[in-house]
Amino acid sequence: MGFGGYGHWIIVALVVLVLFGRGKISETMGDFGKGIKSFRKGLSEEESKASKPAAPAPQIASTADVSKPAEQNTHQS
């Protein structure tokens, strides 16, 4: 008989049912299904945001450009 015999898997299934119970297994699978649904919903929301063009980033003027006007070269020799 080896690792994959029918008797072995029946014993494994019984041990899992005894440890977790029938209710916990179905509850866990339900939570797993809800997680997959919310994951898919998040992906679809992200794709819809990505398809919209993003607003351009605001430009900030440099303080050196705004604070002083360019000085003219009025130095006479």
UniProtKB/TrEMBL annotation:
It comes from the Bacteria. One of its GO terms (cellular component) is TAT protein transport complex. It holds the Pfam family TatA_B_E. Residues 43-77 are annotated as: Disordered. GO terms for biological process: protein transport by the Tat complex. Keywords: Cell inner membrane, Cell membrane, Membrane, Protein transport, Translocation, Transmembrane, Transmembrane helix, Transport. It is found in: Cell membrane. InterPro entries: TatA/B/E, TatA/E. The keyword Amino-acid biosynthesis does not apply. GO terms for molecular function: protein transmembrane transporter activity. The chain crosses the membrane at residues 6-25. Residues 60-77 have a biased composition (Polar residues). It is a single-pass membrane protein. Its main location: membrane. Part of the twin-arginine translocation (Tat) system that transports large folded proteins containing a characteristic twin-arginine motif in their signal peptide across membranes. TatA could form the protein-conducting channel of the Tat system. The Tat system comprises two distinct complexes: a TatABC complex, containing multiple copies of TatA, TatB and TatC subunits, and a separate TatA complex, containing only TatA subunits. Substrates initially bind to the TatABC complex, which probably triggers association of the separate TatA complex to form the active translocon. Belongs to the TatA/E family. This is Sec-independent protein translocase protein TatA. The lineage of its organism: Bacteria, Pseudomonadati, Pseudomonadota, Alphaproteobacteria, Sphingomonadales.
